[in-house]
Amino acid sequence: MGSDEDAAVDARLGARLAELRAERGWTLGELAEHSGISRSTLSRAERAEISPTASLLNRLCHVYGRTMSHLLSEVEGEPALLVRAADQAIWTDKASGFVRRSVSPPHPGLRGELVEGRLTAGADIAYDRPPVPGLEQHIWVLDGTLDVTAQDVEHRLGAGDCLRLRVWGPTRFRCPGPADVRYVLAVVLP
Fold first, then answer.
1. Rounded to an integer, what distance in angstroms lies between the CA atom of residue 62 and that of residue 85?
2. CB atoms within 10 A of CB 55
3. CB neighbours of 5 closer than 8 A, spacing ≥ 6?
4. Which of 66, 68, 112, 123 would you label with 105, given CA atoms 20 to 30 Å apart?
């Protein structure tokens, strides 16, 4: 994705975040209390002055009761039954070395979705909570090695390995290297 396209996605995402806050009648201060994110960071994200990180979006998804794919699909076009590879939404968290491709055609009424994740060697992403408590995840590694920590247990996954879990608390995704990791994340709402 080019910088113009990145900026357009950030602008639509910021506008949607502002809409979600307005739908609840919350001030930036109230959202800061609910999310644990500073008012200034929230304001800058809503105005698309910053590109939100995966961790920040995860916290907001938790507050708004959405998965990240659901939130990102809300800033895309109309839902389709088929999404060609070239048209799948890609979101990059440059700060952490995380690239997320929404593989499934987005639809707010469905409970399952597929996501392709890529982490660069050494990348380490910690989520303090799931976007939706009890979220079911199936993590299938296609290439490389991925360390996943959930419920204080670390699982090392190699190519072909699949981990299934329900997420209730903090999780961590880390690529120990030496190569990047590519994996499929199947997400099912409870």
1. 28
2. 17
3. none
4. 123
Residue that has been written with the tokens 């009761």 in this structure:
65
Tokens of 95: 């700060």
Task: Categorise residue 119: left if φ over 0, alpha if ψ from -120 to 50, beta otherwise.
Answer: beta
Distances in Å between the alpha carbon of 128 and those of 25, 78, 139? 25, 31, 18
Rounded-to-integer distance, Cα 141 and Cα 30, Å? 39
Q: Cα(186)–Cα(32) distance, rounded to whole angstroms?
A: 30
Beta bridge partners of 100: 91, 117
pLDDT in tens, 148-164: 999 999 999 999 999 99
- 37 within 8 A of 4, measured Cβ to Cβ: no
Q: Give the range among 43-52, 70-79, 102-111, 124-133 with minimum mean pLDDT.
A: 70-79
Q: Which string of DSSP letters, residue by residue, matches 80-118?
A: -S---GGGS-EEEETTTTEEEEE-SPP-TT-SEEEEEEE
Which run of H or of E encompasses 35? helix 28-35
Please name the residue that has the structure tokens 């609910």: 34
DSSP letter at 187? E
Distance CA 177, CA 190 (A): 33
Task: Identify the three-state secondary structure at position 24.
Answer: helix
What are 76's two structure tokens?
Answer: 């895309």
Can you tell me the distance from the alpha carbon of 71 to that of 62, in angstroms, rounded to the nearest whole number? 11
